[in-house]
Amino acid sequence: xxxxxxxxxxxxxxxxxxxxxxxxxxxxxxxxxxxxxxxxxxxxxxxxxxxxxxxxxxxxxxxxxxxxxxxxxxxxxxxxxxxxxxxxxxxxxxxxxxxxxxxxxxxxxxxxxxxxxxxxxxxxxxxxxxxxxxxxxxxxxxx
Length: 143
Known about the structure:
Helix content: 55-70%
Keywords: Membrane, Transmembrane, Transmembrane helix
Protein name: Divergent PAP2 family protein
Pfam family, one: DUF212
Strand content: under 5%
Oligomer: single chain
Transmembrane segments: 62-81, 122-142
Mean pLDDT: 87
Low-confidence stretches: none
Structural class: mainly alpha
Number of strands: 0
InterPro entries: DUF212 (IPR003832)
């Protein structure tokens, strides 16, 4: 049985997440558990969707209908990571600044401002996804 289609996105998420944790920990000079989540290098979302599109391309070919569906999904997720979620982060920054001067600021938790991704973070996520798909295709016995 071929579980590679179910395993590949999980592996891409894991690899990107571990990389992001290591990079954030090095930047922070300590273990960066508080920085786990949305945003950062590489993009987990981009890694996940690009791993599936890449695996389908490698195993089925780019003419297969599933590849078209995977690429469409990847575009939606990547555009969302770059535009919508970045705007949400900007809104959170503005709301946090407004709330900083309010009386009940202590009752309200600060909104997370790091939500979206830069182009470099997205490209890094895509490269991680492609690399994971290639590893799964080339080393099928390990996965």
